[in-house]
Structures are given as C-alpha cells and as structure tokens.
Amino acid sequence: MKQQLAPERPDSERTSGQPRGTMVLKMNPTARILNGIEIAAQIKAEVAEEARTLTAGGITPGLAVVLVGHVAASEIYVRSKVKTCAELGLWSEMLTPPENVTTEELLELVAGLNARDEVDGILIQLPLPAHVDTRRLLEAVSPEKDVDGFHPINVGRLQSSASHGIQAGTVLAPCTPAGIMEIMKRSDLPVAGQHAVVLGRSEIVGKPVAMMLLNASATVTVCHSKTVEIERYTREADILVAAIGRPGFVTAEMVKPGATLIDVGINRVTDAAEVARFFPGDEARAAQFAQRGSTLVGDIHPAAFALAGAYTPVPGGVGALTIAMLMKNTVAAAKARRGATKYREVAAAKA
Ligand code: GUN
C-alpha cells in the first residue's frame, strides 16, 4: 500500500519536534473505532426499558418473523432476531412456510398478521424464493407494522417528513441505515454540512441512508456500479458509507485522510492468500482464519481504516446495529399503533 499524507493535526497532537504545518508521511494513529456493539447495547437497554413500561400498561410489543424455506444465512439472522426479542422483553413468533409456498398463500398469511392486534411488527426475511412476488408481498404488510421500513408508504414518509418524524419515532425507517445514523449521532460526529458519499444504491441500505443523510443536512453523492472514476468522489468524502458487498473494495488511496468511514459490508473470505493480503502481519486474524477456515472483511480495505478520523470495524460495527434498530422499530410501532396513551400514563405514574 502506498503511504498517504496524514491530515494536519492540532498542536496537541503533533509529534514533538515537528514544526507547525509540516505534512506527516504516516498513518493516522488516532483513528477512532466506532464500536457498534457498545452503541447497540445502549439502544437495546433503552428499548428494554420502553418495553417494560409498555408491558406494565398491558401491552407487550410483539414481532412476527416470516422465514420461507431454508436459506442458511437467513436462518441465522432470524434466530438472532427472535433471541434478541426475548432478551429485551418483546414476544415474537416465527412462521416458517415451505420453500414451495405461493405468493397467494403468503399474502393470506400476511393478511392474518395484519389483522391480529397483538402483532406490532411484521418482518419478511429476504431474499424470498425466485417464484415469490417480493414487491407485492412487502406492499401487503400494513405500513403501521412494517418494522423493516420497506413499504412504499414508509419509504415516502422517510423522504417527505425528514428527520423530525424519525426522532419522534413516527417513521419506520430501514434498520441498517437507521443504525448508521445512530452511530453518527451517539458518537457526536458531524453530519450537517459534510460531504457524504454513499457507495451502493440498494433499497435496503444505499438509497435510504442517502435520504437520511440528506435529511440530516449532509451534501450527498450516491455512487454505484455505473459510476465513472468512483475514486474521484470517494476522495472528496467527509463521510464515506460503503454498501456494495465487495470485500476490501475501498482502498487507502480512495479515502480522504481524516474521513469517517462507515463499512456496511460483511463479506466472508475463505481464501488464505486473500486473507494474507487484507491483513498482512495480523496474527490474531491469521489464527482465527486457521481455526474457522474463513474470516469477515468489509467493503473497505483494512489499510484504509488507518487513515480515517473514525471508522466502523468489521465485525463489530454497523452489523451490530441492525437488530437493535429492528427492536427499536417494533417498540415504536407498538407505541404508535396501540400504546401511546397507555405509555404516557404508565411513564407518568413511574416518574
Ligand atoms: N435480508 C437481509 N437484510 C434484511 C433486512 O434488513 N430485512 C429483511 N427483512 N431481510 C433482510
């Protein structure tokens, strides 16, 4: 990797003997790690407290998860969602139709969940089998129970009601992008006036996070597979969000020293040579790889993190927030739909 010019640091951070204004040819030793696990734990503690208050008022927030067929990764995610519900005092229900279920049968199942008052959140785990009409199904979920924030009504609300609604808990926003905004907020990182560059334009991450950053008054550029000379944009980014699913795509040469790097990628690497290329001299990583036969790499090359002002590690960064935000959305949906009055009464009595 080429050496980069580190950002000029204030006097307090200059190496002794280094004259003012000198450009330093070394990595940024002060790159701040944004610990997603800690932030997720804070959010989960807050959600558990809200769930206790609601439960004391006779309303236990509940999540229904629909898992079709047997996709290994989806089974792991769903198990984790159900387990977290139990930890935070939410109830949950898992529905597991077989791989050959039809769109019509799934529409019936969703209609049943929409009609049940005790179900506050409905999550249809993606991807669905190719023969299922995913769009039709996501649009069939009641917007008030759409804890994924995928329904067009919620996509529209996210665009039109800006951040006020999200803060007030009245907009159900997609979980991973909402988690990214929580990381920024709880780490006191500036967003307003910053140039945010988003890599990827998926419905689940790229597009909604671009909208949320815009709502928070960033200047936003969205890059994607057809963008010409992507590094022209990434080098200008004060905040760089990488969500393209390509291991180590963003190299050190592509980032602005001192930038905030948000890595959404979770890529499993199984090739030893590749692991050595990503983590040269990292004995802990090599040992982990030897034991498990794989390791996780984000969309940002680990060498680029060393130049950052702050960055989310992989694992332990953005990924940790997704389930926490799902729990937060489920409680918000319960409060908004059936608990607002009750919640205020109980909270006032507790105070
Ligand atoms: N599959 C991968 N990510 C997600 C997500 O955020 N929500 C759902 N429902 N499915 C997913």
Strand content: 5-15%
CATH structural class of the largest domain: Alpha Beta
The residue ranges in which pLDDT falls below 50 over 5 or more consecutive positions are 1-26
Sheet with most strands: 6 strands, parallel
- Terminal-residue CA separation: 57 Å
Average pLDDT, rounded to a whole number, is 90
What portion of residues is helical? 40-55%
Structural class: alpha/beta
Total DSSP E strands: 11
Please state the overall shape, judged from the principal axes of the Cα atoms. Answer: globular
Radius of gyration: 22 Å
Number of domain modules: 2
CATH architecture grouping of the largest domain: 3-Layer(aba) Sandwich
What is the assigned CATH homologous superfamily of the largest domain? NAD(P)-binding Rossmann-like Domain
DSSP helical segment count:
13
Order of adjacent strands in the largest pleated sheet: 1-11-8-7-5-6
Could you name the CATH topology of the largest domain?
Answer: Rossmann fold
Bound molecules: guanine
Summarize the helix and strand pattern as letters.
Answer: EHEHEHEHHHHEHEHEEEHHEHEH
